[in-house]
Amino acid sequence: MNNKKGFIDFISTNKVVHIVLSIVLGFLVGAIFLVVLKIPVGAAYGKLFAPFTNLKGISYIIVYGIPYIMTGLSVAFSFKTGVFNIGCEGQFVVGSMAACLLGILCPNLPSIVLIPLCFIAAMLAGAIWGIIVGFLKIKWGINEVLSMIMFNWIAFYLSNFIAGIPAIHSDGSAEATKSISENAQTLLSDETIANLGLCPTANWGIIIAIIMTIVIWFIIEKTSLGYELKAVGFNKDAALYGGINVNKSILLALAISGAMAGLGGALQLMGMGRRISIFSSQEGFGFAGIVTALIGCSNPFGVFVAGLFYGSLMYGGSKLNLVGAPTQLVNVIVGTVVFFIAISVIFTNLKYLKGLFKKKEVKNVNGGEK
Amino acid sequence: MAKEHIDMNTPVIEMRNIVKKFGDFTANDGINLTVHKGEVHAILGENGAGKSTLMNQLYGLLRPTSGDIIVKGEKVDMKSPLDAIAVGIGMVHQHFMLIQPFTVTENIILGTEPTKGLTVDMAKARENVIEISKRYGLDVDPDAKVEDISVGMQQRVEILKALYRGAEILILDEPTSSLTPQEIVDLIDIMHNLTADGKSIILITHKLKEIKISADYCTIIRLGKYIDTVDVSECTENDLADMMVGRKVSFTVDKPAQEPGDVVLNVKDLHGVDYRGVEILKGLNLTVRKGEIVGIAGIDGNGQTELVEIITGLKKGISGEITVNGVDIFNKPPHFGFENGVSSIPADRQKHGLVLDFAIEDNMILQNYAKKPFSKNKLLQRNIIFDYASESIKKFDIRPGGSEKRPAGTLSGGNQQKVIIAREVQNDKDLLIAVNPTRGLDVGAIEYVHKYLVEQRNKGKAVLLVSFELDEIMGLSDVIDVIFDGQIAKRLTDGQWTESELGLLMAGGGDHE
Questions:
Q1: Which of the 8 DSSP states describes residue B326?
Q2: B contact residues 314-333, partner A, Cβ 8 Å cutoff
Q3: What's the pTM value of the predicted model, to 2 decimals?
Q4: Contacts of residue A238 in chain B, CB cutoff 8 Å?
Q5: pLDDT tens digit sequence for B343-355
């Protein structure tokens, strides 16, 4: 079908192409920095992409990617329903803490009970964190972006506070909580990890992430609930006129979005972290979710791929110092990618190039006749 | 009309065989247009016929897929409006592009400021503005802030802006759509001053009356195709309408006599406030019976907007009683009224009537998305929704056909209105409220909307029509309620109303009850 349209048409109208172009440009800008720092570009990018070449590396990418997929889904869902969930960060933290508390305080429950319980608690915690903000908005018209940013900090200090409570705090010297019970962990068995040669934190959290990707897509595209939430997101006035309870929809959208972020926190904790450190600054999983949602065009499947991409950069980036490249290179790349996605309308303007080509063709024809 | 000011030997604009395609959709299909020096040339077409697309190509906003644009004898290839301005084309858009807190002069010189050293030479700019303003009788105060002047004046500022940049060809896009009758008369005078001085004007419109008064020639476009260019003085309004729509258009509505039935809508002693909190409805009483159209005539701001918002549940009233078929719907949410028999064609179709980013098919089920057959077990039944939309698009002649999956925002205004009408009529409720249902529509679409309103009445529905178009109220209503100062000032039931009688009542004069 695309044969009829030209190559430039394809580039200027296809959103996926814009994303890919943005990523390529991100790496180009990163390369410029490397050249300036006199670090061989090939070696640095080789390190960044090396994980893709073996099973162990791929398992790292997946493990790193899980939380980004979940926060990405959270933000993407909020975009589709007309709220901007910048509070994803805090919801992630409270979800993580809810799962952590259960994992520490109920160590003897069997996995089959404890793990689902942790998931549910984390989703509830994230959802409640989102609903509070929604309630403030509906009841007193408080701008949700402001209250979300504040709630991120409340979550942050709450988490540090809980981690410092003697019953929760690690018995050792670490500034962190105790480790959660093995029954609450989603790690694959040592045998499997050894046999397949996976990374030591390989876990089955990715299966939950896959399921949630499909669930979110299904809600948005296939259900009357998704219709309702999208209608409110696109045009509140028309939704109200059409008989939709707008306030209820906003709360529900924030609850679902928050639940995804909270579950992300639980998956990160139960697979990779296993305990929560006392942090001096926000970890940024939630904010990275905004990036992932943007790269994934707010499409759940796009977000899934974008989450893995982000995970691969985070993992590969941690290896950059081996070749003498600063790990901040990854931030430069990600920042540039987001920048180009934000101004991706410039790619639409590539269509003007077509006019230039056409003119040249015409000139050539005329020349031939003469 | 006298045409001595037209120089037929000097074509200033020639558009030859213009084709513009958007994907598979052909918006302009071989259109020709020739405009001479000193001529007012109207472009007439229904909503969505391709008028704006054609003009956007002439103003450099779009580039033709094929075809030539020749300005003053030279072929041009315009990449942006800057190129168009450079060859002397100016455009006044339907929605003005002015900076509200700036003065008239500041707005006019923006981007082409005369300088003296490093500073803007405001004195010189002001002189220039006054000079041009005087020459064409524009009568604009160069020092007034744009936010303080009327819509008609703002339009003159836009015209001045184009003239200041040396425009010899002015494109006016639906220039009268937001003007009062007196402002329209003034605008037509200004257009004549301009053409007398050798400027050419291209007028995009679907208002036949104005074409008759102001234009010399008229090019008619239908469904993106060139139909004809005619000498306006040799055509009647009816001829123009027929060419535009492609069939015989009737300006009057046939309405069989019919005895109204039981009361459907009953509004008693309704009090309500406007957006500022000032009481605007002061004890209004109103009834609408089965099988009748009740028209609300009144000057904007007398409470008609709030009346409809309160009935449809978009706004809360202070006190009073509203029942539909005996069920109390006062201060209930919109869906409660809907479930109990209220459907409405809202005044603002883009704000309340449609979700512009939703596909047509999704807009067709705005109130019924969660009900059978469109949803089963909370799952949308996509096939059923699509089929329903297809059927509606055919039945209500929504153009372009096959647009089930297209966002509503991509349709023309008239077709957006058809989507709303298709939805509300098929909702099949006992009460249909229509607020300015034909605003911004062309004659073909207006005829169509009127036909559906009368059809609802004939089927025994109660119809409440609120409109600022007196012709519409007088032509359709069985009963006219004149609203003045938050109350129904007079109910006219004999069908023997005249425009002057209504005008007097609407202004608070005449024989009040």
A1: T
A2: 314, 333
A3: 0.75
A4: 351-355, 366
A5: 999 988 888 999 9
